[in-house]
Specification:
Length: 236
């Protein structure tokens, strides 16, 4: 594991749930944060939870369904931080639970924009700057969802995200920038629902593993899937 203290991380969907826990975990390691949500006002609870950590925090906001707004947001994040070192693309939506044959095409459109295309836009922008500096950690939050055709608009976006992340990892080989996937597990959040088997706090410390990766001999841990629940109960 490598030291990440004083690095800067950009976390999407940081106002609640898994994104909020990731922000707390990073702060506990001394990582400075640029928090993203759809509105800055939504971040008040996260800020309160981060109050006791000796780190720098900046806030940005944008609607991930709007590419122009995303461009402005990520440019602002890069500027206010002086350079983003770690990305957690956590924000996602899950549309209605509905029979596969009846899913409105609009559900696919909005799901792909927020869960895939926004992530691609964010990764492609920051990875260029990371390559220049010779360091970066890109973590795209995926899902282990399967055999759930009534959530097809969500599940197929995660399959697409997995493929993009692995392609990006190959593109970034030997640049010092690692792209990997994080499966947080099924957690009790607004998206996961009350019946999920895992408390949202169980994503730590596992969610931090892909951010703390170092080169292992001649091998780069890239394009890999890390399951946060595999590390549940471990203390660092």
């Amino acid at each position: 594991m490598s030291e990440i203290k004083n690095k800067w991380a950009f976390v999407t969907g940081a106002s609640r749930g898994i994104g909020q826990q990731i922000a707390i975990g990073l702060a506990s390691k001394g990582v400075n944060l640029v928090l993203h949500s759809s509105a800055v006002a939504n971040q008040e609870k996260t800020l309160a939870l981060l109050n006791n950590f000796d780190i720098n925090i900046r806030q940005v906001a944008c609607d991930l369904s709007q590419p122009d707004a995303i461009s402005q947001c990520i440019e602002q994040a890069e500027k206010v931080s002086g350079g983003i070192d770690i990305i957690y693309n956590n924000a996602a939506i899950m549309t209605q639970f509905i029979d596969l044959y009846n899913v409105p095409v609009e559900d696919y459109h909005i799901s792909f924009q927020i869960n895939v295309l926004a992530v691609i836009q964010i990764c492609n922008y920051f990875s260029q700057h990371m390559k220049t500096r010779g360091y970066g950690r890109i973590i795209n939050v995926t899902s282990g969802i399967k055999d759930t055709p009534n959530l097809d608009a969500y599940s197929i976006t995660k399959a697409a995200l997995d493929k993009y992340t692995r392609d990006l990892a190959v593109k970034l080989a030997n640049t010092g920038v690692l792209a990997n996937l994080l499966d947080p597990g099924w957690c009790r959040t607004d998206l996961g629902g009350p019946d999920a088997m895992n408390d949202v706090r169980s994503v730590l410390p596992g969610a931090l593993v892909p951010a703390m990766l170092g080169k292992q001999g001649d091998e780069e841990p890239r394009g890999m899937l890390f399951a946060a629940q595999d590390y549940s109960g471990i203390s660092w």
